[in-house]
UniProtKB/TrEMBL annotation:
<dbReference type="InterPro" id="IPR049326">
    <property type="entry name" value="Rhodopsin_dom_fungi"/>
</dbReference>
<keyword id="KW-0472">Membrane</keyword>
<protein>
    <recommendedName>
        <fullName>Rhodopsin domain-containing protein</fullName>
    </recommendedName>
</protein>
<feature type="domain" description="Rhodopsin">
    <location>
        <begin position="2"/>
        <end position="202"/>
    </location>
</feature>
<feature type="transmembrane region" description="Helical">
    <location>
        <begin position="118"/>
        <end position="137"/>
    </location>
</feature>
<comment type="similarity">
    <text>Belongs to the SAT4 family.</text>
</comment>
<keyword id="KW-0812">Transmembrane</keyword>
<dbReference type="InterPro" id="IPR052337">
    <property type="entry name" value="SAT4-like"/>
</dbReference>
<keyword id="KW-1133">Transmembrane helix</keyword>
<dbReference type="Pfam" id="PF20684">
    <property type="entry name" value="Fung_rhodopsin"/>
</dbReference>
<feature type="transmembrane region" description="Helical">
    <location>
        <begin position="60"/>
        <end position="81"/>
    </location>
</feature>
<feature type="transmembrane region" description="Helical">
    <location>
        <begin position="30"/>
        <end position="48"/>
    </location>
</feature>
<dbReference type="GO" id="GO:0016020">
    <property type="term" value="C:membrane"/>
</dbReference>
<feature type="transmembrane region" description="Helical">
    <location>
        <begin position="149"/>
        <end position="175"/>
    </location>
</feature>
């Protein structure tokens, strides 16, 4: 995308830079939403293994997972059908082969869409961060140990800070700017940073799942090796004329 003019002034990029920018924006909406969904659900799955002792714990975790799921579905559906036909989202920005405005309809304001996606995203982040604190507070530990344990679970606060910083850039975003490929550069960079930091901060929660995948793969490899050893390949002897 950078080679096609993104993060460059519009007069520096190729003629179809705005079309490529809009197409990249469309695909980023899916990868961004799906990545955050995986991070949130992996953390909630980790909480389920540790804190789901009582019914109320399972209920709260189920509600949080439902909120994440609803946010994901709503974000994806709104992103897909913000223009009819779907391709009009990027074709309307094509200066080389412009699309007739009478042939498409875009009923969703992209700027408002970004705000509508970011606010519930930040809210769910806050709720996920706060969920383990009451359990940690009730542990029979010294105050210093409680604080240290809480800090481990609060690693996601770095993601929350980045989300808020990105939200500030979203509020300042002007998608009708004639130099949109340059003006949106900062917001898109913070979008990438948010996903990267979220993945790194969520690695302690991903580890059990990754370990299970490794064990499954190791077991399948052992089964396959045993099967191959028990069924040796027959060597065909040459036929005697």
């Amino acid at each position: 995308v950078v080679s096609n003019g993104f993060c460059k002034h519009i007069w520096v990029g190729p003629p179809d830079a705005t079309r490529d920018w809009a197409l990249g924006l469309f695909t980023t909406e899916f990868t961004y939403t799906f990545s955050l969904m995986c991070i949130k659900l992996s953390i909630l799955a980790f909480y389920w293994r540790i804190f789901s002792v009582q019914f109320i714990d399972k209920l709260l975790l189920g509600i949080l997972a439902g909120m994440v799921g609803c946010w994901t579905v709503a974000s994806i559906l709104t992103s897909v059908f913000q223009c009819v036909p779907i391709s009009a989202l990027w074709q309307q920005f094509d200066p080389v082969h412009p699309t007739d405005p009478s042939t498409f309809t875009c009923g969703v304001n992209i700027h408002n869409l970004f705000i509508g996606k970011t606010v519930p995203h930040i809210v769910t982040d806050v709720l996920i961060l706060l969920f383990p604190l009451p359990y940690i507070w009730n542990l029979h530990l010294r105050m210093s140990q409680k604080i240290a344990t809480a800090c481990i679970f609060m690693l996601g606060i770095f993601v929350l800070v980045v989300s808020i910083v990105r939200f500030v850039f979203v509020l300042q975003l002007n998608l009708e700017s004639p130099d949109v490929t340059w003006d949106e550069c900062a917001e898109m960079k913070w979008t990438g940073v948010e996903v990267y930091i979220g993945t790194v901060c969520g690695m302690p929660y991903h580890f059990p799942f990754s370990l299970q995948l490794w064990l499954i793969n190791d077991s399948l490899s052992s089964i396959l090796e045993a099967f191959v050893e028990s069924h040796p390949t027959r060597k065909c002897s040459p036929e005697v004329a």
